[in-house]
Amino acid sequence: MNPDSAKIVEVGARDGLQNERVPLSVKQKVEFINLLSKTGLTSIEAGSFVSPKWVPQMASSSEVLATINRQDKTTYSALTPNIKGLEQAIAAKADEVAIFTGASETFVRKNINCTIEESIERFIPLISMAKEHNLKVRGYVSCVMGCPYEGAISFKQVIDTTQRLIDIGCYEVSLGDTIGVGTAHKVKELITETTQQIDVNKLAVHFHDTYGQALANIYASLELGIRTIDASVAGLGGCPYAKGASGNVATEDVIYMLHGLGLNTGVDLDKLIDAGRYICEELNRPNGSKVALARPLKN
Ligand SMILES: CC(C)(COP(=O)([O-])OP(=O)([O-])OC[C@H]1O[C@@H](n2cnc3c(N)ncnc32)[C@H](O)[C@@H]1OP(=O)([O-])[O-])[C@@H](O)C(=O)NCCC(=O)NCCSC(=O)C[C@@](C)(O)CC(=O)[O-]
């Protein structure tokens, strides 16, 4: 990747909406994704093929993916915890899928009802089937900075799990600070240790802003060569299986910082702010982006 550019993986329509109390219609979700698509974002997580009993908010992902206006340069991806999810993602013509596990046994049990090892075993046939359909597979490791149930998590557990996902065929692994407890120094330590064995270009970061540390953590990650950042417009988000986890870092704020650092993202900040304002109005919730709040409303 060009060292002067950075890539955003926009997770607002998935991570952002999966925990919202206000149920959105397919039409509202489609309008939201269509607005995001007009911003220049090249990677949009558009839904999740998980059990509707576990995460009802994502139940309409098939219809959403079938209805959005896709941009040629944008990849529309979806989470798939198992083969059943992958089959639905293929039928819905997702461009890419993401599998997800974690560095904490308790979190993984609560989130996908298996052990870390069982999750990896489950992903092996999923990845080979995805590859037969020419779908790239991204991986997530949750709880890299701490777990809502177990507390501290060892770097070894994070790195071993990340390595396993790469070994079974993920082209990239996103390191998730699910509950937003990380601080810049610890993030630097983790990334320094991880990149001793894993190519930095295969890593992304995914920070929740629970303790207001996300931008500092992203800055620390950039200093160590990370160039793929997950973010959620308007700071939407939170994992249903991580109580107290607030939203993801707001994409608008990340873009503002990246542009200020001279990194090209290809994203139009004003259009992104419009997408964030739209979804906040639909959800009747405050906008979690400081940049969006600072920019005057257009007449
Ligand atoms: C993985 C399972 C399915 C295991 O759940 P289980 O209960 O162990 O699964 P099962 O295979 O026994 O199936 C139970 C029922 O679910 C159905 N089912 C089974 N699979 C699917 C599927 N793919 N799509 C639709 N339905 C499915 C299946 O057909 C069956 O239906 P029933 O016979 O009872 O009517 C469940 O635990 C689950 O769906 N978990 C998802 C949890 C989730 O989505 N969490 C949020 C995303 S992760 C996250 O937010 C963190 C991240 C990525 O953002 C990074 C970070 O911040 O750290």
UniProtKB/TrEMBL annotation:
| Stretches assigned to the Pyruvate carboxyltransferase domain | 6-273
Q: What is its EC number?
A: 4.1.3.4
Q: Does the keyword Lyase apply?
A: yes
Specify the superkingdom: Bacteria
Q: One MF term in GO for this entry? A: metal ion binding
- Record's keyword terms, sorted: Lyase, Metal-binding
Q: What family is it from?
A: Belongs to the HMG-CoA lyase family.
What is the name listed in the Swiss-Prot or TrEMBL entry for this protein? hydroxymethylglutaryl-CoA lyase
What species does this protein belong to?
A: Alkalimarinus sediminis
